[in-house]
C-alpha cells in the first residue's frame, strides 16, 4: 500500500485511487501489448479506442447529441481564453463577458487583445471582491457570445443557475466544476475545461463545441492549430494529443459512470461534502468567516478566513501535520481554501471538520 494524504490542492488535484492503480498497471504494460501506454502511437487502434470512448462518454454524461464535438486540446484553459474570441468573435458583434474573478479577467484580457472595443463586460462582482455571482446583466442580442466562468476556483463562488441568453451562444469555462453536477449542457455552445482539476492529470483541455460554432471558423484565416475546425475535422487527432493525459481522463470518465453511477450521484456526493464543510463554517462563524455569499457558494472550492493571518498560517501547517494538505488560499486572496472535487473523499472532509473544531478550541 502507498501512503495517501488528503489532498485539498486546487489543481492539479486528487484523483480516484482506483484510476491511479489502473493507470500505473498500464504504464508498465498496456493491455498485454508488450509496451507501455507511455509508448503507444496516437495512431494505434488501441489508442483510437481510448479517445473515441472518452469522447463518447463526455457526450453521454452531458446528454449531448451529434451536433456537438468533443476535443482534447493542449495549451490549457488559458489558450481557450484566446482561441474563443479568435474563432468566434464576429466583426461588429460584441463578445460579452461576466467578470466573476481572476480567471474571468484573464479571459477578458485575451479578448481585449484581439479587439478592445468589441469586448464588453456586461456584469461584474468585483465591487465586492468577487464574493458573489451577479444575477443581472444586459444582453446585446447582436452579440457573438456570452462568456461565463461557472466556478471561480480562487474566490470559491459558483453559478447555481444558467444565464438565459436566447439566441446568443453561451460559452463557459468549467475548468473547476466540469462534470461535478447535473446541468442542462445543451444550453451551451462551447464548454471548456483544463483537465487537471476535476477530470484527470495536467496536460489536456476538454473542449465541447457545437456545430454552429464550428461553422463560424470555416472561413477564418488562422494558424492551423488554433482553428477549432482543424480539430473537429480530425476528431481531435490532427496532431499528437497528450496521449497519457487523455488516457487517464478516459479512466476518470469510466469511474464517473461505473463506480460513481453517473452525474446525479456525483452531485449528491459533492453536495454532501460541501454541506458538511459549510455547516461547520457557519456553526463556528465567530472563528471561521466564509468569504462567498451563501447563495453563490462553490461546491468545489470552499474558502474562508480566520481571525488573522498568523492563525491562518498556523492552521495550514498544523493541518498538514495531520495529512490534510493544500489548504492555503490562493496567493491573491489569502485565507484558507479547501478544494473538494469529485474524487475528494468524504472522510477527508470529516477529518478537516474535526481539525477545525480542535483548532478553534486551542486558539
Ligand atoms: C485553473 C483554471 C484555469 C487555468 O487553466 P490552465 O489549464 O492552467 O490554463 C482557467 N479557468 C479556471 C476556472 C481555472 O480554475
TrEMBL record:
N6-(pyridoxal phosphate)lysine modification, residue list: 197
Positions contributing to pyridoxal 5'-phosphate binding: 77-78, 103, 153, 173, 196, 239-240
Sequence positions that bind L-glutamate: 43
Enzyme class: transferase
SUPFAM superfamilies: PLP-dependent transferases
Catalysis performed (reactions): 4-(phosphooxy)-L-threonine + 2-oxoglutarate = (R)-3-hydroxy-2-oxo-4-phosphooxybutanoate + L-glutamate; O-phospho-L-serine + 2-oxoglutarate = 3-phosphooxypyruvate + L-glutamate
Domain Aminotransferase class V: 5-352
Record InterPro entries: Aminotrans_V_dom (IPR000192), Pser_aminoTfrase (IPR022278), PyrdxlP-dep_Trfase (IPR015424), PyrdxlP-dep_Trfase_major (IPR015421), PyrdxlP-dep_Trfase_small (IPR015422)
Gene Ontology cellular-component annotations: cytoplasm
Location in the cell: Cytoplasm
Cofactor binding note: Binds 1 pyridoxal phosphate per subunit.
UniProt keyword terms in alphabetical order: Amino-acid biosynthesis, Aminotransferase, Cytoplasm, Pyridoxal phosphate, Pyridoxine biosynthesis, Serine biosynthesis, Transferase
Source species, domain of life: Bacteria
Entry's family note: Belongs to the class-V pyridoxal-phosphate-dependent aminotransferase family. SerC subfamily.
UniProt pathway: Cofactor biosynthesis; pyridoxine 5'-phosphate biosynthesis; pyridoxine 5'-phosphate from D-erythrose 4-phosphate: step 3/5; Amino-acid biosynthesis; L-serine biosynthesis; L-serine from 3-phospho-D-glycerate: step 2/3
EC number assigned by the record: 2.6.1.52
Cofactor dependence: pyridoxal 5'-phosphate
Subcellular location, principal: cytoplasm
GO biological process, one term: pyridoxine biosynthetic process
The protein, known as: Phosphoserine aminotransferase
Amino acid at each position: 500500500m502507498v501512503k495517501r494524504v488528503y489532498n485539498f490542492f486546487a489543481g492539479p488535484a486528487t484523483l480516484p485511487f482506483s484510476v491511479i492503480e489502473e493507470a500505473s498497471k498500464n504504464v508498465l504494460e498496456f493491455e498485454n501489448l508488450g509496451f507501455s501506454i507511455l509508448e503507444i502511437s496516437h495512431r494505434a487502434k488501441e489508442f483510437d479506442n481510448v479517445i473515441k470512448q472518452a469522447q463518447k462518454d463526455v457526450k453521454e454524461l452531458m446528454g449531448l447529441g451529434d451536433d456537438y464535438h468533443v476535443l482534447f486540446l493542449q495549451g490549457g484553459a488559458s489558450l481557450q481564453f484566446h482561441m474563443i474570441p479568435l474563432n468566434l468573435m464576429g466583426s461588429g458583434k460584441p463578445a460579452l463577458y461576466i467578470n466573476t474573478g481572476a480567471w474571468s479577467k484573464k479571459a477578458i484580457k485575451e479578448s481585449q487583445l484581439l479587439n478592445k472595443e468589441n469586448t464588453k463586460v456586461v456584469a461584474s462582482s468585483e465591487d465586492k471582491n468577487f464574493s458573489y455571482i451577479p444575477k443581472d446583466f444586459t444582453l446585446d442580442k447582436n452579440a457573438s457570445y456570452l462568456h461565463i466562468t461557472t466556478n471561480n476556483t480562487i474566490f470559491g463562488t459558483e453559478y447555481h443557475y444558467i444565464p438565459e441568453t436566447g439566441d446568443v451562444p453561451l460559452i463557459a469555462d468549467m475548468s473547476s466544476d466540469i462534470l461535478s453536477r447535473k446541468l442542462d449542457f445543451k444550453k451551451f455552445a462551447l464548454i471548456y475545461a483544463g483537465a487537471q482539476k476535476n477530470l484527470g492529470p495536467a496536460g489536456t483541455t476538454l473542449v465541447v463545441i457545437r456545430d454552429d460554432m464550428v461553422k463560424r471558423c470555416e472561413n477564418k484565416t488562422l494558424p492551423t492549430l488554433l482553428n477549432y475546425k482543424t480539430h473537429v475535422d480530425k476528431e481531435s487527432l490532427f496532431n499528437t494529443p497528450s496521449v497519457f493525459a487523455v488516457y487517464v481522463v478516459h479512466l476518470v470518465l469510466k469511474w464517473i459512470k461505473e463506480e460513481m453511477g453517473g452525474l446525479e450521484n456525483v452531485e449528491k456526493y459533492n453536495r454532501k461534502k460541501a454541506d458538511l464543510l459549510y455547516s461547520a463554517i457557519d456553526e463556528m462563524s465567530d472563528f471561521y468567516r466564509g468569504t462567498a455569499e451563501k447563495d453563490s457558494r462553490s461546491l468545489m472550492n470552499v474558502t474562508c478566513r480566520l481571525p488573522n493571518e498568523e492563525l491562518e498560517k498556523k492552521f495550514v501547517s498544523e493541518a498538514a501535520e495531520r495529512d490534510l494538505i493544500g489548504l492555503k488560499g490562493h496567493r491573491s486572496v489569502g485565507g484558507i481554501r479547501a478544494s473538494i472535487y469529485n474524487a475528494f473523499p468524504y472522510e477527508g472532509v470529516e477529518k478537516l471538520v474535526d481539525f477545525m473544531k480542535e483548532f478553534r478550541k486551542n486558539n
